[in-house]
Every structure is written in C-alpha cells, then in structure tokens.
TrEMBL record:
Source superkingdom: Bacteria
Gene Ontology MF, one: zinc ion binding
Primary gene name: yjmD
Taxonomic placement: Bacteria, Bacillati, Actinomycetota, Actinomycetes, Kitasatosporales
Stored InterPro entries: ADH-like_C, ADH-like_N, ADH_Zn_CS, ER, GroES-like_sf, NAD(P)-bd_dom_sf
Keyword entries, A-Z: Metal-binding, Oxidoreductase, Zinc
Entry protein name: Putative zinc-type alcohol dehydrogenase-like protein YjmD
Cofactors: Zn(2+)
Amino acid sequence: MKALVFHGPGQTSWQNVPDPSVKDAADAIVRVDAVTICGTDLHIVKGDVPEVTPGRILGHEAVGTVVETGGDVRSVRPGDRVLISCISACGRCRFCREGHYGQCRGGGGWVLGHTIDGTQAEYVRVPFADLSVHPLPSALDSHDAVLLADIFPTSYEVGVLNGNVRPGDTVVVVGAGPIGLAAIATAQLYSPGRIIAVDLAASRLAAARDLGADATASADEEPERLVEDLTDGLGADVVIEAVGVPEAFEMCTRMVRPGGHVANIGVHGKPAVLHLEDLWIKDVTITTGLVDTHSTPMLLRMTAAGRLPGAAMVTHRFELDQMEEAYDVFSNAGETGALKVVLGGPQHDTVTVPPQER
C-alpha cells in the first residue's frame, strides 16, 4: 500500500510500505476512505515530538471501512463504516476505567501516528478496536465525520470542559485554526456571553466570525486591550490557548480575570514562561490535557443532527495520493486560507493480509 512516512524533521514521503496485518485479537484492519491532517502532524514534521521516530506512518484521524478483525472484536465486523478515534483505549487499566483514555497505560492512548503506524495511508491497523472505532450512520458524510476523530472532542474536552465555560462567560480563543474554530463552535453549547477570537490571519478571523465569534482581534494589535475594554477591565472568564507557542500561552495568562481559567490545548515544542509573580495572587486555574474522546459518541449524535458545523470547516479536498500537496497547503495556511483539509483515497475491494498464527 501507499502511506505518508516520516523520515526525520522536515522529511516525509508518500511511498510503498507493507500492508498492515492483525497482530492482536483486539485489532481491526480498516481501509481508509477519508483522512485529514492535524496541526499536531505539523509539529511532528517540525521535530517537536521526539517520540515519533523515522519510519513511522503519520496520521491519527480517519473514516474508513473495516476489512478484517481479530477474534476478540465484537462491536464491528468487515464491511462496517467507522470513525477511527485519535485515541486508542485498552479498557482495562486504571485510567481507562476512569474514562481518561488519553492516559491509557495498557498500550493505548495517543498511539496512531505517534508510537505505531497511523492513518495517513490506504489501510491502517487499529488496536483495541471495540473502544477505538465508532460505527457511523450511513447518513453521516465522511467529510463531516472525520472531524470527530480529533478536533471536536479535543476542543470540547480540553478547551471548553477544562475551561469550565458557563452561561454568560466571556471566552477568548487564542488561535483560530481548526482546533480554535471547533472550540468556538462547542463553547456555544454553554451560552457564553461573548466569544472573542484572536489570530494573525485575517481569513481565520473571518472564519471565526462565521462560526459564531462575537468579536475578533489580530494577535499583533494588542488583543489584551480589546478584552480589557469589553470586560470593563476585569479580563476574560475563560481563555483557551489553541496555538502551541510560548507567546500565545503567555498572552492567555495576561487576558484572564482573577478566578478565571486558562485552558491550554496547543501542542508546545518549546518552554513557555509562567509568570507566577503576577498570577500567584489571582486564583487562576491553568489546565493542560490530552483528549480522552469520551465525548465522541455525543458529538457524533450532534453532528448527525446538524448541531455542529462539520464539513463547513473543510476548505480543501484532495485525493489520497495528493498527501504531500495537502501538507504544503495546510502548512502554509496563512497564504492558502486552509482550515481543514480532507483527503479521500481511491476505493479498494480487498486488502492482502499475510496469514497469522492464531
């Protein structure tokens, strides 16, 4: 099969690799029908995630069709159309039993495209399939569903829930890329008083307004002053960091009110300064987190009901073998206006799986 392989910082290639095979009785082999690129993938390519080693197939978000399952899989069977979650869950360890699947210690967590081969390929092996894939209703379009693999549960759980968004709150989202836009969409489920979006790109600020932001500010034009003006000098109740650079995190801590919440979603590759000399007296709560995807079934139901924007965030579509072009477009979003790119590969009737010892 073909797959996008990481060869070290700044180096990837769309190349031939061996087909995946069932290695454990809980595995499923899925033909990839739609896949997308995450900002985390860009961090990996930059070298910000050293756990990803050369030779790894990237990607952790996809919709596909099950072509084979191990003997222990009960929730899906060959022919089923499924959402592949960015998080795999063993279901047995302490964290999985608490619903904290992102911290799984039984071989799951964020493994696809990280510590095992991922979804930016024609086929993918998904471990712990019963808890790591979600059957999809036939009426739900693949380009809507694929956004439920990562960005919507991440924004909702790590941004909105960790940030404790409540009715009437002033919410600031720093970073209006896909994650930030999904945070704007899901924050509205809690009826905040206003949502303010901050970004450098005018196209992304326009998208934020389209998705419900009440005010926008360019990151290089003193957004702190706008927040101060709109809150009578108090500061925002909730500030969500959705960029992953030190300057953005430090800006968030300057905009939050006493007793407020800073919810960090961004993937950081460099240290950020924590100004405790200013924050220690302000009763500020700062949260970090990796998504658990416990909310995915609920978000799927809401997407199917038309309550989330889904494919409205998809700005570019490619064939699967245009993976390198799609990366170029997504990584140069300031010039291309890309928000979310989705790739749909050619359809295959069969997958060749080497015989396994059972």
